[in-house]
Design a protein that fits this description.
Blueprint (H helix, E strand, L loop, with lengths): L2 H27 L5 E9 L2 E8 L2 H5 L4 H13 L5 E7 L7 H13 L4 H14 L4 E8 L7 E8 L6 H6 L1 E8 L4 E9 L14 H27 L1
Parallel strand pairs: 2-3
Antiparallel strand pairs: 1-2, 4-5, 4-7, 6-7
């Protein structure tokens, strides 16, 4: 690997590390607002930051004061160039992995058994319309040795184009008496499309295609006649 390639790889690693640090910072600060993740995109005018939350008003603040302070903090602490922050409301919290992982963490803090918390969250996600979901809770669950347990339901591909395009993932850690627990939530949203699942066309769609077919054939014949005459 050349020196230029190493530099590019290092820049990518630093950029992803910065995004993880910002995500962790925002999750701790806006936990009461129902923080649901962040998207950071570089633009020619600066850095576009989109924060997803159940209660956007707590992040915006009165007259946008909280957002202005947050913009200054992101620029000073994390070196973002001219951050432009916008807040989006999470319409269905059960389909957001950050929110569901945080809810599981809060339930575990109250002393609820991890199995009960896992099945409860899985049922809520599937009832919200998810095509598939998986919850992994790891830590000292039953003994002094760390283990993990999975709760899975529905259709959840782990590779291929649908997995890269549609899967939503989040990881949250919570400090309990036995130690640190890790909670990983993966959700396949209802709008996901799969190449191995055919879709049945409605009669209206078939009628429109049938009307368009003769028009295409007529145009092709006329063009062929013109070509033969020449």
């Amino acid at each position: 690997m050349s020196r230029e390639e190493k530099t590019v790889v290092r820049e990518i690693i630093d950029e992803n590390l910065k995004k993880l640090q910002i995500d962790e910072y925002l999750r701790k600060r806006f936990e009461k607002a129902g923080y649901g993740g962040v998207t950071i995109v570089r633009t020619p005018l600066g850095t576009h930051v989109v924060i997803y939350a159940m209660r956007p008003g707590l992040i915006i603040g009165r007259g946008g004061e909280t957002v202005k302070k947050l913009s200054e903090e992101l620029e000073q602490k994390f070196g973002l160039e001219n951050p432009q922050i916008s807040v989006a409301e999470v319409e269905v919290p059960e389909l957001n992995p950050y929110i569901m992982a945080t809810r599981i963490a809060q339930v575990l803090k109250r002393g609820v058994n991890y199995r009960r918390a896992g099945f409860w969250a899985l049922r809520r996600i599937m009832e919200a319309g998810a095509l598939g979901a998986e919850i992994v809770i790891s830590g000292k669950l039953r003994t002094a040795r760390a283990k993990y347990e999975k709760f899975r339901a529905g259709y959840l591909p782990v590779c291929g184009d649908p997995a890269q395009k549609y899967l939503r993932k989040a990881v949250v850690h919570v400090q309990l008496k036995p130690g640190v627990y890790g909670i990983k939530v993966t959700i396949m949203p209802p709008e996901a499309k799969f190449p191995d699942q055919p879709r049945i066309k409605m009669p209206e769609e078939i009628g429109e295609e049938a009307k368009a077919a003769p028009a295409k054939g007529a145009s092709g014949e006329s063009s062929g006649e013109k070509g033969g005459g020449s």
